[in-house]
Amino acid sequence: MIHVDPQGYVREQLLHDERRCAQFHGIFQHKLARMRPSPLAFLRGAAPMFYAILRDHPELARGPRGEGWIAGDLHLENFGAYRPGSVLEEEKKRPGNAAVFDLNDFDDAAIGHWYLDVLRLTTSLLLAGRELHIGGPRALELADAVVAAHVEHACHGGKAAKKLPPVPRPVAELLDTVRSRSRVRLLDMRTHLVHGKREFIRGARYRDVARTLQRRAAAAFEAYAEKLVKAGIERDHLKVLDMAFRIAGTGSLGGLRIAVLVKGKGGRDGAWIFDMKEQGTPSASLLVHCGDLKRAKRVVSAMQKCLARPPRMLGTTKLGDLSMLVRRLAPQEDKLLLSRLEDTDLLPLARYLGALAGAAHRRGATRPPKKAWKKNEQARIVDNAITLAGIHEAAYLAMCRWR
After folding, report:
1. Which residues of the chain have pLDDT under 50?
2. What is the bridge-based pairing of β-strands 197-200 and 365-367?
3. CA 90, CA 77: separation in Å to the nearest integer?
4. pTM to 2 decimals?
5. For the CA atoms of 232, 189, 25, 241, what is the dihedral angle to 10 degrees?
6. Whole-angstrom distance, CA of residue 283 vs CA of residue 45
7. Contact (Cβ atoms closer than 8 angstroms) between residue 71 and residue 360
8. How far apart are CA 324 and CA 358, in angstroms?
9. Handedness of CA 25, 259, 39, 177 (dihedral sign)
């Protein structure tokens, strides 16, 4: 019998968040608001708590063999569409912009046991009943499907990589939608014209950056931009027009995040937006060794290893002592709206997400298993996810009382 104090874990998590967010006015309350809608929203913002539970209850952290790069914070909403770094010939023939759907958040990436990712993904699915409008039996059916699909695409020895299952209808529709989006639409959503020049719209998403920080951020971006210039990007395209403190995400709130607007190409409607995001110690470091790579370089390495087609203009820089991940934002970035999925789409989608996770693990493997995970090992992961989902449900309710 596992004895857990959910309120104690919540207290530890929120005190950690409060300290981390203290340097930015109102961000802690913003994070609480982001975590309050549902248990799944709470899980998204509480990765340190997830791994603290596993640290304190190692019987929940045991699983079958298989090691390599893991996302570390894998859950239902860390899959999405984005623009890859290269455009395949067949996509060049299509109207619109290239887009792929895959894992899209590696901030907590580390070298570790695959089952940690699978366990967190499965737990998130069991907690997603409110979003997916399903009950327990259906959630368990989907959880079994996620784990089985992962095994099918990660654990098959020296055989060639297995082809992914058919793209589910919601994913296909999302990709069709984002491929038609223009760069101007992205700019119009995030910037406005001031005296004929684009600037970030200050408000819920963007805030002013203090002048001293702005100078340091400009130098950090210049160091990153220099690598792009060497790769063939014209220096004039990377001229900085505006900078702002960016408020985005849930788990990452509290870290420094700077949005950078540059000249781009094609006049005032051709500007580019970059995201510079502070990278810290992965939540999974409570259980796994994070290697010798610097923090942002760790994230880039994980994406390059695990993704068949990583995002474009991905790089790193330093802002003082902070290690920053830098990437160019694209209008193709988007996620599935879980609440709008139809029940008939859920099983194909569960299998597809499990397959994507398995394929990513296979690419980033350091110690692949010699044999596929057995049925009883797969069932054990789901059983442990049931326990973790129960703990997170209780912790979520305790968090909702926090003032």
Report:
1. 87-95
2. unpaired
3. 28
4. 0.94
5. 40
6. 11
7. yes
8. 28
9. positive
